[in-house]
Design goal:
Layout (H helix, E strand, L loop, with lengths): L1 H25 L3 E4 L5 H12 L3 E6 L3 H12 L5 E5 L5 H15 L4 E4 L14 H29 L2 E6 L2 H5 L5 H21 L4 E8 L12 H10 L8 H12 L10 E4 L7
Parallel strand pairs: 1-2, 1-4, 2-3, 4-5, 5-6, 6-7
Helix pairs in contact: 2-3, 2-9, 4-5, 5-7
Length: 271
């Protein structure tokens, strides 16, 4: 009788595990995207929605824009949830990973896109400017990735894509602190790719060039035209140009690519 009870309990446990496995197989894949209310982040969210991914649309202050992104994504038949978080806050990074797990049951992809710029001479950059820049661009990506990677390791794999900048590759006069923060993201990507590869997690980076986003709204039309002329392909990039590359790096089509930085810049620094 006792043996029969134990056998029944074991059978029930086995059935529950089987049901859970089947549920995971039926689930859409999921992605966390920071800075997803506009620009590259929004384009990336919509690109993943077209591929059938459920999306955590992370934003800091632009609630209306994040809700708009989510509503557009839902048109593709996926779940898209706006989620307010401060990328520079360690507790918010952990809260973000927990939210994605609660909503989707797993985290397949992380896109660390949120970032700020600082056009300022090196000699005029203050300590507060520096600290804020690195808190958002570098610390945030580090600790959100840490929170998500723990879940990916437990699940047996995943893909992480960080958004840096071409100035993180070659540096920009007048943007020393920004260039340094984005170079740090590239270094983190390379090191993390080696550390997480045995766990089945790929980590790659994209370094966009001049892209038509609000971050470049500070430049006038003449300046943007001059930048387009300096670009071998003869135009300014679009958020969609970057988004397509993010989706590729996160997909099985890039299953043997990790630790790489792909410059999406129309040849601006690459030729």
């Amino acid at each position: 009788m006792i043996r029969t009870v134990y056998q029944t309990k074991n059978l029930m446990k086995g059935c529950r595990r089987l049901v859970l496995r089947q549920c995971f197989l039926l689930m859409n894949k999921s992605v966390i995207i920071t800075g997803a209310s506009r620009g590259i982040g929004k384009a990336t969210a919509l690109a993943f929605a077209k591929e059938g991914y459920d999306i955590l649309v992370c934003y800091q202050s632009r609630e209306a824009d994040a809700k708009e992104t989510a509503e557009e994504a839902k048109k593709y038949g996926v779940r898209a949830i706006p989620f307010q978080m401060d990328i520079s806050s360690l507790s918010d990074c952990r809260r973000t990973a927990a939210k994605a797990l609660m909503e989707f049951g797993k985290i397949d992809i992380l896109v660390c896109n949120a970032g700020i710029s600082l056009p300022a001479l090196f000699t005029q950059t203050t300590e507060d400017d520096y600290d804020r820049l690195f808190a958002v661009n570098t610390k945030g990506a580090f600790f959100l990735t840490q929170a998500v990677a723990k879940e990916m390791i437990a699940a047996g794999g995943g893909s992480i894509v960080n958004i840096s900048s071409m100035w993180g590759v070659v540096g920009a006069s007048g943007e020393v602190a920004y260039s340094a923060s984005k170079a740090a993201v590239i270094g983190m990507t390379k090191a993390l790719a080696k550390e997480l590869a045995p766990s089945g997690i790929r980590v790659n980076c994209i370094a966009p060039g001049v892209i038509d986003t609000e971050m470049n709204a500070c430049y006038d039309e003449d300046t943007m035209s001059a930048l387009a002329e300096k670009t071998p392909l003869g135009r300014i990039g679009t958020p969609e140009d970057v988004a397509k590359t993010v989706v590729f790096l996160a997909s099985e089509n890039a299953s043997f690519i990790t630790g790489q930085t792909i410059t999406v810049d129309g040849g601006f620094i690459g030729i």
